[in-house]
Amino acid sequence: MSLRINIVTLGVTDVAASRDFYEALGFAASSASQPEIVFFQVGPVVMALFAKDSLAEDAQLPHGHGRAGAVSLACNLESESAVDALLGKAQKIGATILKPPQKVFWGGYSGYFADPDGHPWEVAYNPHFTIDANGAVQLP
Amino acid sequence: MSLRINIVTLGVTDVAASRDFYEALGFAASSASQPEIVFFQVGPVVMALFAKDSLAEDAQLPHGHGRAGAVSLACNLESESAVDALLGKAQKIGATILKPPQKVFWGGYSGYFADPDGHPWEVAYNPHFTIDANGAVQLP
Questions:
Q1: Given CB 3.0 to 4.6 Å as the disulfide criterion, which of A120, A121, B76, B109 pairs with B80?
Q2: Domain of A84?
């Protein structure tokens, strides 16, 4: 069971403005970025900028939860069955399942659990992402 | 200027209970952990558990900010002057400085800036942490 942090997603008010901010700080946006979501390769980790309302909707967060300074952590695994196994383990040890694992619109398979303080963890299989030998997502 | 995510700190209600949760999920706590703060090596990234009120105090967050699902990101650099330079750059491009760089009680030197949505970034020099050739913190 390889639980790890692959992506730190910051829920933001204005994706374009936040992209400008992080580019000004010295990050280079990946070509995988889109108007709705921006990806940065930060060493072995990926940082994403995503509208906070979209993040709340994607994770099926309770209304009003964590909109200020919204963050999610993502663990990218190699297969749908690995996603099922990790979310099953999270549920077994008492985690709240925010979103059961399911096929999602971007072509992958993903679910979310919440830790004891409600921090949302996405567990995902993304066929568009390359995972290296160390388990890190490598953006284009 | 090597801005990177070294540590993802989750602000939690009960550090011991959250440690139990993450250990049950399969993480192994580092020997650097203390009752007040728990560290996990998650591949090249460090995840920390810290009381959310302590996190708010450490980052000098505005009252009530981000207590639900509190998270901070940390960038560990090689020297105090590198901390000054990065926080200076953040300020120059319009970031709010939450805490000017200063010597801190744990023996290091650190400051915080906020991104456009208030996500707190700590920029720190920590003489107790080993940083490898890739810029990753390596816990004992």
A1: B109
A2: 68-140
